[in-house]
Automatic annotation (TrEMBL):
GO terms for molecular function: transaminase activity. Belongs to the class-III pyridoxal-phosphate-dependent aminotransferase family. This is Aminotransferase. Keywords: Aminotransferase, Pyridoxal phosphate, Transferase. PANTHER family: AMINOTRANSFERASE, AMINOTRANSFERASE CLASS-III. SUPFAM superfamilies: PLP-dependent transferases.
Length: 451
């Protein structure tokens, strides 16, 4: 009978029939299907065919304490049973929400005093943008509205997040950026250094901020935003001179500094926050991924005392918030995640041991002709692919070479990410030396095979 012979659709078929994926070419997905990931354990994930992959990208730079942490699941379970949800809008809070805010502020250091919770990094960036404008209005300077960001930065996918971001392909699709957001150059020395030494280039790129402020008029500028280390743009570690000069300029013109630490926050660089690594004193710090290691969707803006005080004294109602701001179950997951990070001293281990080991292993790839440069900070790394190393000639289709390397790695059971012609690595903090060696040996084999 016909219906007995009908084959049940696979999960991949069901998925592509009904699920629209983020940043995906839907036509390609329909033709090629998707891989169904069914399990995770430490730094490994398993797909529906039982194949095991070493995930050198921690999901999406987020599963920092590794997969399969029962302690976090138990904390969320217990919270769901006692109080699954309550809002934080009308003069109420919940225990995990309050405790998490206190805990984050302690880690963030003395300048930071408050936390505003959101569900995603994009929303965190939307949030501080509105807060920065409210701050200046409360200070009697309502014209200070413009935010300066950087080309090739990534700050999320909401309309404001994508506008703050400097990704041209995102702007082109959405008539972006929205008014009031402008972009300056990025500190991408390898590709844009133009023969300068890294330190000279770092100063030059930072001074673009000063030029832009003067062009716009300091009285119209609210804030400057950047990732301490550009992530999605290619794990671009700025020259040493870059951040001190940016800091000097922000102070000189009294511009608020917003750091987007959605990737770098909670230990990835070997410091709790990237701004601590670079000695910055931001007014806003967006965090997400590493806050709960991806076990629950939760994000936040950490806010400086001066901004929080201005809001308390002169700001009136902040007309902004999300139903799930400070969701108790997500907050419980984040607290359990922070317990693990602290108890196992995972950030200290990156600083003392894993970071230097990872950097040395990654830099060993520099002997290959296809590798233009490697960059590493903490457990964040990138490999710049080049057509001609001596001439610094890049591939004519940078995204193609990146995808080829990524796909070859996948065939060898290694998950990495490509951003144009840079291969990005961000393994979980529980990675071992041996597993780092496997990542680098696999990458080496792939890079040798494709040339
Ligand atoms: N900011 C940075 C630096 C990010 O890397 C990301 C996501 O990768 C975001 C913001 C957006 O976060 P979300 O995807 O949670 O909205």
């Amino acid at each position: 009978m016909e219906f007995q012979n009908r084959k049940e659709p696979s999960l991949s078929e069901i998925d592509v029939a009904h699920h629209l994926h983020p940043f995906a070419n839907t036509k390609e997905y329909r033709e090629q299907g998707v891989r169904v990931i069914t399990g995770g354990d430490g730094v490994y994930v398993i797909d529906s065919s039982g194949r095991r992959y070493l995930d050198a990208f921690a999901g999406l730079w987020c599963v920092n304490v590794g997969y399969g942490r029962r302690e976090i699941a138990d904390a969320v379970h217990a919270q769901m049973i006692s109080l699954a949800y309550y809002n934080t809008f009308f003069g109420t809070t919940t225990e995990p929400t309050a405790r998490l805010a206190e805990r984050i502020v302690k880690l963030a250091g003395p300048d930071m005093s408050h936390v505003f919770f959101t569900n995603s990094g994009s929303e965190a960036n939307d949030t501080w943008l509105r807060m920065a404008r409210l701050y200046w209005t409360s200070k009697g300077m309502p014209n200070r509205k413009i935010v300066i960001s950087r080309q090739n930065s990534y700050h999320g996918s909401t309309i404001a997040g994508a506008s703050l971001g400097g990704m041209r392909h995102m702007h082109e699709q959405g008539d972006l950026p929205i008014p009031g957001i402008v972009h300056i150059g990025q500190p991408y020395w390898y590709a844009e250094g133009g023969g300068l030494m890294p330190d000279q280039f770092g100063i030059l790129r930072a001074r673009e901020l000063e030029e832009k402020i003067l062009e716009l008029g300091p009285e119209n500028v609210a804030a400057f935003v950047a990732e301490p280390v550009q992530g999605t743009g290619g794990v671009i570690v700025p020259p040493e001179t870059y951040w001190p000069e940016i800091l000097r300029i922000c102070r000189k013109y009294d511009i608020l500094l917003a750091v987007d630490e959605v990737i770098t926050g909670f230990g990835r660089t070997g410091s709790w926050f990237g701004y601590q690594h670079y000695g910055l004193r931001p007014d806003f710090c967006s965090v997400a991924k590493g806050l709960s290691s991806g076990y629950q969707p939760i994000a936040a803006v950490i806010v400086s005392g001066r901004v929080a005080d201005a809001m308390a004294h002169e700001g009136g109602v902040f007309q902004h918030g999300f139903t799930y701001s400070g969701h108790p179950c997500a907050a419980a997951a984040a607290l359990a995640n922070l317990n693990i990070l602290e108890r196992e001293d995972l950030v200290g281990k990156i600083q003392r041991d894993l970071g230097p080991y990872f950097a040395k292993a990654l830099h060993s790839l520099n002997d290959l002709a296809i590798v233009g440069e490697t960059q590493a900070i903490g457990l964040l790394g990138s490999v710049q692919l080049v057509l001609d190393k001596n001439k610094r000639l890049r591939f004519s289709k940078p995204s193609d070479i990146g995808m080829i390397v990524r796909n070859f790695c996948m065939e060898r059971d290694l998950i990495v990410r490509a951003s144009q012609d840079r291969i990005l690595l961000a393994p979980a903090f529980v990675i071992t030396h041996e597993q780092i060696d496997t990542i680098i040996a696999t990458l080496r084999a792939v890079l040798i095979e494709i040339v």
